[in-house]
């Protein structure tokens, strides 16, 4: 799965240019456009489907095999969960040059709000160590959605913590592998799940943005699921949703940027 190099302009989101300036001042969000080529996106979808089939997405994934539940009133889409250290490392190396401002999060630093230093971590430095090898591939069809939520912070047994979400938009049915969309349309039919009719795989995506909400739910900022775009955002405090897909298919890949904590001044940072 070769990943193309290249310079991508990568400023952190300026909240003052959005309707949410008063809600998220000091919160970390970054959008990378055209970060992955259409060919790379298609290969990532193929990677997901190489050893698994699409299943109804659960609301929560725990460490145990039964620690999940399904609530289609809250989350209605499909997913493939893949644990892949090699793929996550390659993605991390591609992203790393564009997230340099958060490779080390220190008390009093610009981005301490990512981890919430006031919660007993006054002397802790958080250092980026890679991406979570748990890659969650997502597929949304007409009528699918994920209602308002904040992403939870994950602590793994090796003392890695997730503090930042990475969402990669992989396009729609028009750039997906042909066997992916054929399987979707043939097996699901008129169920309200992805596909619905053979035309959905060939129609452009309409709807399905990631919507960041104001605290009172009256204002929002939409990040469209544009092919090759990457949305990076802190898990703490960012209230968001996956809005309803109205036409076509939406493919995405979600994972986490992982950190380890050390006492300030004693950090071992991964280059």
TrEMBL record:
It comes from the Eukaryota. The keyword Cytoplasm does not apply. The keyword Oxidoreductase applies. Residues 173-200 are annotated as: Disordered. One of its GO terms (cellular component) is endoplasmic reticulum. GO terms for molecular function: iron ion binding; L-ascorbic acid binding; procollagen-proline 4-dioxygenase activity. Its cofactor is L-ascorbate. Residues 27-258 form the Prolyl 4-hydroxylase alpha subunit domain. Keywords: Dioxygenase, Iron, Metal-binding, Oxidoreductase. This is Prolyl 4-hydroxylase alpha subunit domain-containing protein. It comes from Crucibulum laeve. The lineage of its organism: Eukaryota, Fungi, Dikarya, Basidiomycota, Agaricomycotina.
């Amino acid at each position: 799965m070769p990943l193309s190099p290249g310079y991508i302009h990568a400023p952190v989101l300026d909240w003052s240019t959005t309707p949410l300036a008063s809600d998220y001042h000091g919160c970390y969000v970054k959008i990378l456009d055209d970060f992955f080529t259409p060919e790379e996106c298609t290969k990532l979808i193929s990677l997901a489907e190489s050893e698994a089939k699409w299943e109804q997405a659960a609301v929560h994934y725990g460490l145990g095999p039964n620690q999940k539940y399904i609530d289609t009133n809250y989350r209605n889409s499909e997913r493939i969960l893949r644990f892949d250290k090699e793929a996550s490392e390659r993605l991390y190396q591609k992203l790393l040059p564009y997230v340099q401002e958060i490779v080390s999060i220190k008390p009093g630093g610009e981005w301490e709000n990512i981890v919430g230093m006031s919660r007993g971590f006054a002397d802790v430095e958080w250092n980026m160590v890679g991406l979570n090898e748990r890659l969650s591939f997502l597929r949304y069809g007409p009528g699918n959605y994920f209602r308002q939520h904040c992403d939870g912070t994950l602590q793994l047994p090796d003392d890695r913590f997730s503090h930042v979400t990475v969402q990669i938009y992989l396009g729609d049915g028009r750039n997906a592998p042909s066997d992916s969309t054929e399987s979707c349309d043939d097996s699901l039919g008129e169920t309200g799940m992805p596909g619905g009719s053979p035309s959905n795989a060939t129609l452009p995506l309409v709807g399905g943005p990631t919507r960041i909400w104001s605290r009172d739910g009256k204002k929002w900022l939409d990040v469209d699921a544009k092919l090759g775009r990457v949305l990076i955002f802190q898990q703490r405090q960012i209230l968001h949703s996956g809005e309803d897909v109205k036409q076509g298919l939406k493919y995405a890949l979600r994972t986490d940027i992982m950190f380890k904590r050390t006492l300030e001044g004693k950090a071992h940072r991964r280059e």
